[in-house]
Design goal:
Keywords: Membrane, Transmembrane, Transmembrane helix. With 318 residues, the chain is mainly α. Helix content is 48%, strand content 3%. It starts with 14 loop residues before the first helix and ends in a 34-residue tail after the last helix.
Amino acid sequence: MTGEAVALELRPAKLPSRALAVLIDMVVAWSAYLAVTLGLLAAAGSLDDAAVAAIAVSTFVLVLVGVPIAVETLSHGRSLGKLACGLRVVRDDGGPIRFRHALVRGAVGVVEILLTFGVVACIASLVSARGRRLGDVFAGTLVVRERVPTSRTEYVPAPPPWLVGRFAELDLSAVPDGLWLAVRQYLTRMGQLDPQVGWAMAERLANDLVARTGAPAPEGVPPAAFLAAVVQERQAREARRAFGATGTPGFTAAPGYPADPGAPGAPAPAPTPFLAPPAQQAAQAPQSPQAPQAPQSPQAPSEAEHPGRPATGFVPPA
């Protein structure tokens, strides 16, 4: 829970499931280590003791430390044990981990898992409110459950169409993970909040985001819509960084997300001028009694034609 009574949408994994996942990973890793060690010793039988010790240390570091780090990096937080138990390592804000997160978790795991047989990791997980071991604390990560009931799916609502692509040049590198998590929590729960409380919360989060990015929000844009547009831009960047072009097999861009301009063979996107919200455009247009009413565009289907499409949840300012 946050201070504004917004529930945390990430579901931390319990200690028994994490311990089972670590046990599976350790059985596989130690089996591979023993097989590689015996093979190298058999092939290097004529070497002296110093060379044999160097080979043993190198094999230990490579197989028991390097391979798990590489697996977590390439699988975005899913090792063999976590995949079997339905777990995954994510950042504190719910995003996929990178190499530096896996490196810190693996380096600290040598002490709290390998050298102490998991005793330190178990104690740290029991003490932590979110079940994090020391490697998770230093790396800023969290082990969550992926196999959860799907009776109610929480999603971050899409921003209004007139804000899509407006923040492609915004520098988001200085925004901390904690602020991203707070913004995502608010966007997924804003429909459950009192309107005045939700508006004040959105203004505070938008001001914090503006202070971190150094760029003011466009005038006349509701703070909730501004937050949703910036979060969408960040998710699009994360998808391009993790999976490359949007045409990568197995990756489907979310509805409303801009296409990757760097994809091979992708057409160059047309520049998107900043337009005022539709309500403001209608208010600023001259009122002529002879002007006929413009017919509805056939490319803008109504909600009745697409009942499964989620609404944005935002109303342009009057």
